[in-house]
Structure formats: C-alpha cells, structure tokens
Amino acid sequence: MNELTLYERIGGDAALRQLTDKFYDLVFAHELISRLFRSDKELIKEKQRLFLTQFLGGPQLYSDVYGHPMMRARHMPHTITEDDAVAWLQCMSEAVGQLPISNELKDELFDRFPRTAFFMVNT
C-alpha cells in the first residue's frame, strides 16, 4: 500500500507556498525574531519551502539545490535563544492555523516543528 506523505496530505507545493508566505510575513514583523531574518525575504521563503518539502516527505528539493540541510550548522552564526524558538513556533502555529486543512492535519503538521526549533537554540 502506498500511504501519502504529510507533504501530499497537506496539499503539496501550493500549501507550502501559502504557509511560507504567511509565516514569513509574521516572522519579519515579529519584535523578537525579525533580527534573525535580515536577508532577502523571497530567498528565505524559497529555501524554507524547499526544506519543508523534503522535511515533510516530498521530493528532496533542498538537498538537490543546497546539499545536505545541516540545519543546526547553518543556523550557528545566529544567536538563537529558547525565547526565539518559542516566538518562531508561535509564528509557525499561526501560519499553520490558516491553512485550509483539517484541525487534525494542522496538529500533525505543527507537531513536526518544536523539536527542530529547539534544536536550533545555541545560546
């Protein structure tokens, strides 16, 4: 049996584009964590979309373009606190909440993020 990935069940690329658009609108406006996102918003959104595609079971797009994600190493140049991780998760929760999917699927999607967010904490 071929079970659908979370990427497929949430709506694939269209859903991730909607998610990253809303998420980065929130992040770039956030008082605490906007300092972590000083470069090109469109490039950041695209990298996140590629990463989330593969993180959620879709094609390995991020690795195809940028190599192994090495997320902790890529985030090490930035000072990231537990408060930053919580703020990041709040933004992601709000963005996930706006997707046109079931509440159960929203919960399953959001549950993928806390472990990774706190893994990025380096201060």
UniProtKB/TrEMBL annotation:
One of its GO terms (molecular function) is oxygen carrier activity. The keyword Iron applies. It holds the Pfam family Bac_globin. InterPro entries: GlbO/GLB3-like (IPR044203), Globin-like_sf (IPR009050), Globin/Proto (IPR012292), Hemoglobin_trunc (IPR001486). Keywords: Heme, Iron, Metal-binding, Transport. Belongs to the truncated hemoglobin family. Group II subfamily. This is Globin. It comes from Dyadobacter sediminis. The lineage of its organism: Bacteria, Pseudomonadati, Bacteroidota, Cytophagia, Cytophagales.
